[in-house]
Amino acid sequence: MHALKLTRKSLGIPYALFLLLFVAAPLIVLVYYAFTNGQGQFTVSNLTGFFTDPNTLGTLCYSFAIAVTTTVVCLLLAYPTAYILAKSNFKRKSVVVMLFIMPMWINFSLRITALKEILTLIEGNLAYYPFLNAVIGMTYDFLPFMILPIYNTIVKLDESLIEAAKDLGADERSAFFKITLPLSVPGIVSGIAMVFLPAMTNYVVLDMLYNSTYIMGSLIGSYFAAYNWHGGSMIALILLGIICAFTLATKGMEDEDGSAAGGALL
Amino acid sequence: MRAETFVRKLIACALAGAVSMPLILNPVCVRAAESEEKAVTLRVCNWEEYIDLGDWDETIDLESGDIIGENSMVEDFEEWYYETYGKRVKVEYSTFGTNEDLYNMLTLGDVYDIVCPSEYMFMKLMAEKMLVPLSDEFFDETDGNNYYTRGVSPYIREVFENHEINGESWAKYAAGYMWGITGIVYNPEVVSEEEASTWRILNNPKFKRQVTIKDNVRDSYFAAVGALKHDLLTSPEFRADPNYKQRLEEEMNDVSPETIKTVQDYLQDVKDNAYSFETDSGKADMITGKVVANYQWSGDAVYSLDQAEEDDYILNFAVPEESTNIYFDGWVMLKSGIGDDAEKQHAAEAFINFNSRPDNAIRNMYYIGYTSVIGGGDDTRIFEYADWCYGAEDDEEEVVEYPLGYFFTGDNSDENYVITAPEEQLRRQLFAQYPTQEAISKSSIMVYFDSDKNDVINQMWINVRCFNLYDVPVWAWAIAAAVAAVLIYLFVRMKQRQKMYE
Q: Is the ipTM of this complex over 0.85?
């Protein structure tokens, strides 16, 4: 028994090492850069500079708006899809689930290039609708990340709970709102976590689609291109703070299955 | 019985193989190990897709002989070096995406012997004392293998000798590789040549959301300064100034606080007028007709024009009348890599020379579409190549005489260096690849700014690209406030309910 415990522990060593090397160490470097200036002295001016500059704050608001809109659109599209998928009979289900995962097997730069052509066909000139295009591009890219966690929670729901509710006189509608929806919240939360942060920083999607939408990720990129590693690190750190706050706020709503479903996708 | 013989044969074969294997391999192993020991390793870092990789399906048939790229330039160099100097050299070839990336790589501790940044970046490297000067032997014109110094265009040589940083000329550290200018690729059906021949096209409301601008601060800054100083730069008095060239470079490199401020305002306007800020996508947007004009480097302009032509779509190239940014990519050797290893430095300089050999310069030009700094000296093949590319067919009706003496011999009236080209080439690939002397006379380099100025300009650029908080419309604030109120309400209600259940 003792020996078994030891081996199980030692199985975790590679991952621990990975974490240490590629997560913890860079984070320390990040914090160091964020709180120093070009001469290596301690400073908080990077932090105060960010929150007093209308340009960086504006970009933060703009990215926030894009990310929130993308997340909401993803949720509105993904929930019914996941619900229908989970409730449909088995044979068709596997095919439909495949249909949703398949786009993820195609290289994303190819998908975005195709999307650009389609949108140009519809809109005429992309440059007039930067916000709309950003939301469409992000939604297109991140939708599967929302569908799968929700699907996973709904498919595991205990059917007897709904039957019990109906026995007690609930109609379809209230059974859904009182039973299914609250019980699928963990899936929704991990779906949001999977979509929100990338939507705020993944500027590659926007660059390929329409390169004048400037979001937080682009800002970090610009700072690094200008050799200002200190400013760039601080912005990365601020984003990290926002995500931590979000995770704390939704703490307890997420169950292990939900996060596992999300993690599997990454 | 049959099976048995088969098995026996198999075993016999395996045995024979096992015995003979070391015999066959051994001498090779030994030889490989020997040469490995003696081989000089040369770590080269160049732009992506910026050297001939071979495998062509077309032969360039010049009068002085055919040229074709079969193997990659790097492989050919290794072979040539062994044949010429009797020593093995092993090239470790890697690439970088932008000058800034290269600089970051170097400061993070990547070690290279020879790299190929643009002029402002090698100026920065020079100023930071990171480079090894080229040796005197490299400039020895009596040595037949010194293709660079024997073949470099007199025009380029002059530029490299006359530009200095901290009292040292570029030529001391840098050998040119490719060069080009900036200009506007445009669709002649929508944009007139006159409209395209000014930086002011970028904020011309006639082409709203149909022009692209470069997504980097230096190119954008140059265009903005050109547009803002249009009246001065195009005035006859300014042009007639005896120190025109010098004054032009001063004006184009003006980084006074007032200029930076006006450039920022100007670029804000451009941002509202342009289709996008791009680095690479502009070519595709131009060819597919999404935009009608795009700020482009001459090498990429040639590529755009070529690609569009394949779809029978005609694009033209124009050089802004205010000034054009002439740029150079040059080979420099790094102290961190070469150190005082004379063998390594010899190999590095041989690498420059090999790439400067006229046939190799042509191979690189053909493969990547940019223009080599090599004119060829006594060797006329590079001029023949330009003629091969752009010279008029015999049955062409409208032709013009296109003199290129300024580049090849330093004398533009040299009759041996005149291409008889179709008239349209005055606005097309020939003009982009080898601009006229008139266009070049209005060119200005863009120097490396010291780090204080650089910080200010970079910040200006980030401000331009950012979304300003004051630009958020009132209705957006109203929506945000409404959403926040609803969320708070829901949260409070949820908490109250939880309390009720408890």
A: no
